Amino acid sequence: MIPHDDKLSDLKITGTGSSNGGQYGKVRIDGSGQVNGNLDCQELTANGTMSVKGSVMARTIRVNGSGTIKGAVESEDLNVAGSLSIKEGLRSRSIFIGGHCSIHGDSESQRLEVNGNLRSHGDVRSESAICKGAFKIDGRLHVGTADIRVLGRCHVEEIVGDRITIRKKGKRLWEMLSLPLRGTCLETRLIEGDVLDLEYVEADIVRGNRVILGKGCQIRQVEYRDELRQDPEAEIGNSRRF
To answer: CA 231 to CA 107: how far, in whole Å?
Structure first.
């Protein structure tokens, strides 16, 4: 946690400008701003185009425009309403992505909510994850609980957690309009957890204590301990109890 210091000066860039890195209270970029170094502040708000040539440590970060951060990011609350590219890792208590966020390292949070688009080139760890947008994760999604609503095609290498629910987003609306979504699914190699309640998942292996497979599931191998329930429209290659 970043301690509050009333003596810290604020930094504001309006129009086109640049500044050195350092410690600040509030940092606000309303035009095209560049910070040449590491940034340590209480609040960071980017409404225009932001470029930080180093790492960022802030209590709150809000990106309404577009931003690029060359280093790692550490915060308590990160809100991306626009577009943000992080060239290293991300660590934040709360992450909300309403726009687009690209992370070129691992990310860690207590709460993750994706309503826009997440592109991760590393592992994603969160105690609680709610995904109602699109995502592509090259590594593992490691969660306590996950509520995923699939729209289009999403991809993650592995999902490991306690309770994982995956559904098709917007099904009722599209069905009422007679415009069914084509190719909607979550693609993964492995899903492993305690309680797995899945729809529209294509996976090599699904492993859990209680496994419920609904519509749109195509699973090569299912391994379960206590219970396996299968919708008639779900496709399973092999299943075994362990």
So the answer is: 35
Q: Are 71 and 55 in contact (CB under 8 A)?
A: yes
Q: What distance in Å separates the CA atoms of residue 89 and residue 106, rounded to the nearest whole number?
A: 5
Cβ pair 206, 223 in contact under 8 A: yes
Q: How many CB atoms lie within 10 A of CB 183?
A: 7
Q: With contact defined as beta carbons under 8 Å apart, do 122 and 140 qualify? A: no
- Cβ contacts of 29-34, under 8 Å, gap ≥ 24: 29/65
pTM for the structure as a whole? 0.92
* Residue count (the chain): 242
pLDDT in tens, 66-125: 999 999 999 999 999 999 999 999 999 999 999 999 999 999 999 999 999 999 999 999
- Give one DSSP letter per residue of 2-43, joined into a string: PPP-TTPPPEEE-SEEEEEEEEEEEEEESSEEEEEEEEEEEE
What are the structure tokens assigned to 77, written together? 């609350």
- Give pLDDT tens digits for 22-45: 999 999 999 999 999 999 999 999
51-62 pLDDT tens trace = 999 999 999 999
DSSP character string of 196-232: EEESSEEEEEEEEEEEEE-TT-EEEEEEEEEEEEE-T
Other residues' Cβ atoms within 10 Å of the Cβ of residue 241: 10
Beta bridge partner(s), residue 113:
96, 130
User: pLDDT band at residue 174, thresholds of 50, 70 and 90?
Assistant: very low
Which residues partner with 211 through β-bridges?
196, 228
Tally the C-alpha atoms within 13 A of residue 166's C-alpha that lie toward its C-beta: 33
